[in-house]
Amino acid sequence: MTRPTATLGIVSETGAVPSERPLTPRGRGRHDQVLDLEPRAAGRRAWLSEVWSYRDVLDMLARKDFQTRYKRASLGILWAVAVPLLQAAVMAFVFSHVIAVGNGRRFAVYVMSGVVAYAYLSVAVQAGSTAIVDGASLTDKVWFPRALLVVVPPLSNLLGFVVTVTVVVAIMPAFGVPLGVQVLLLAPASVLLLGFCVGLSLVLGALDVYYRDVKFLVAALLMVWMYASPILYPQHALGRYASWLDANPLTGVVVMFHMATVGSGGPWVVPVTVAVATTIVLLVAGGEAQRHHDRLFVDLL
Amino acid sequence: MSTAIELQRIGKRYWQLSEQAMLLKSLVPLTRPKRTELWAVREVTASIGQGETIGVLGGNGAGKTTLLRLLAGVTRPTSGRARIRGRVAPLISVGVGFHHEMSGRENVYVNGMLLGLTREEVTRRFDAIIEFAELTEFIDTPVKFYSSGMYMRLGFAVAAHVDPDVLLVDEVLAVGDVAFQLKCIEHMRRLQEDGTTIVIVSHSMHAIRLLCPRALLLRKGRLEFDGDAETAISRHHELLTVDASGVSTGDAPVRIVSRLLLGPGGPTHHPDQGDVLTYRVGLQFAEAVDSPQLLFHVVTETGIIAYSMQTALGRTWHHFEAGVTANADITFRPRLGGGTYRLTVLVTDKTGSRIIGSDPTGYHLYLAPRLGTSGVADLGATIAVGAQELTDHDALLMGPPPPGAPD
């Protein structure tokens, strides 16, 4: 049976992928796809390839999120950079000169690099953990893997983060920290931070659908976590309790940012290993939670 | 003919929670909120052929929307299985993902991609979409400046151009002005001819009659009827009356105990405009009543009184003792436009100052519109210019049934 669709200038054969539609081998919405719906969750491989086939939607959603957030503001993306930068500058000034936890200008860079990373985590995880509930109007009519929604905030905040970090690096020399090869460490540090945020958002985003109080718990956690990590003080400031910080997965992430700027002040192998391991666990657990509850979240919104 | 949609004993259960679940509370044993189960769809088995157009009917809470959500793949069945072949586009989602700050152009991309198109596919259809939506000049304006009509048109236009194999339509004909509605129906006809499988959920019996040879009738989640649309519509109105009849006022002096609409061929829920109908209402007198008066209403779906007739107030005619019953026969011609109507009866005392019996649920009937007509009344108008009569719609009747229509 031929299907002449005159308005679109496309003639297609039902059940076949016509040549006019250049689709990737695993493209979504193909005319020959078969959707099987069963009470149990999709298989791991099937779900992952499904998510992968929606990467263009993820890209579009992240762009949309970024654009709409700053569309109203006349300074646009400047806000995405100015706010965390200002936060970092204030914290750095207070903790290096007013309260003087560390020593002088070099410590200011230490605080700034940590605060910038934490500011990104805070915004991304806060938005990511409520993304599925907030996106309810999107999700109750059209299906796409809900995991996409959760990954959007960490991605859409990435550009602002990269620019902010670049500014911090650029002003480092003025604080007596020379630019060196150590800044190359920013790449793995940022990847680790991104992975950590995505994993955390996947887990919290799934929980948020089921439990109304998750967003308050997240807000409380984000407030405490900043002080429970070596961001505003050097790790050794805790004296004999300093090693306790190593159990905090965020320590390793922050330590990597310190290594990429002022250089590591202490041992880094243990905290970084803890951070990497936690990130992997979060990503796997979050992915599994999303897979098991995909197409079920919508029932609770 | 291959099947596009296969449903095998599909069911969907929802849990209704007594309160919102809290993570902290759930860690404390025995404090989980109470939950009650609700089967929105239960044991539905049906097979829909490729290129078929099928309507889904049912009262409120019958499971129509849940069924559509299952077909759209938005939710997972609790039992049974469904298999859907080809690209599914839900027209239930007019304007999904639209963002007020973004321009019409940007929203077309977001919406189109959410509905399953790739970026290139949206680009290729872009001109056709804005032309269909009649928004060429405003396409770069943020949609927050659009009127609600423009907004809906753009949403529908995108959904209509997804070029799906299976199109799911939910109440979409309520969109926009009359001209745009006609355009939508026309567009769906074209998709029908192209072999698209269409599933329509609508409260508009007209839409179902116009587009669907076959319909599924759902009742409390179960499949009550699967067959030709006319029979389904008739059954649907019968059920509307049956399922609602428990609500009748209990302790009024006069109770309405039965309702029956008699047409030329016996009881009916689906008469023709030309029929002479008798609405027979059984009255039971719980108290002694002197010379009760009756008020007969015909109410449209939107609650407008299309017709009202009253007996002569103040006239003394009969004294009813407590416990007796009587039948009231109301004979009329339904010179009404197409639609679903409710017949209701009020009983008042002799002077009409006090209501002593009422029938809030009433009796539901469906009248098919004469082709080309709309509105509450059917005045039987004809239009002629010179010698040419222009209202002879029979010539415009539906063409041959679409491929895949059941025999």
Q: What would a concise description of this structure say?
A:
The complex is a heterodimer of chains A (about 300) and B (about 400). With about 300 residues, chain A is mainly α. Chain A is built from 12 helices and 3 strands, in the order E-E-E-H-H-H-H-H-H-H-H-H-H-H-H.
How are the strands of the biggest sheet of chain A laid out side by side?
Answer: 1-2
Q: pLDDT below 50 for ≥5 consecutive residues: which ranges of chain A? A: 1-27
Can you tell me the residue ranges of chain B where pLDDT is under 50 for at least 5 consecutive residues?
Answer: 395-407
Give the neighbour order of strands across the main sheet of chain B.
Answer: 5-6-7-3-8-9
Number of helices of chain A: 12
> Span from first to last CA of chain B?
13 Å
Broad shape of chain A? globular
Q: Output the helix-strand order of chain B.
A: EHEEHEEHHHEHEHEEHEEEEEEEEEEEEE
Mean residue pLDDT of chain B: 82
Domain module tally of chain A: 1
Task: Give the second-level CATH assignment, the architecture of the largest domain in chain B.
Answer: 3-Layer(aba) Sandwich
Tally of separate domains of chain B = 2
The average pLDDT value of chain A, as a whole number, equals 82
Topology order of chain A in helix (H) and strand (E) letters: EEEHHHHHHHHHHHH
- At the fourth level of CATH, the homologous superfamily of the largest domain in chain B is P-loop containing nucleotide triphosphate hydrolases
The portion of residues assigned to helices of chain A is: 55-70%
Helix content of chain B: 10-25%
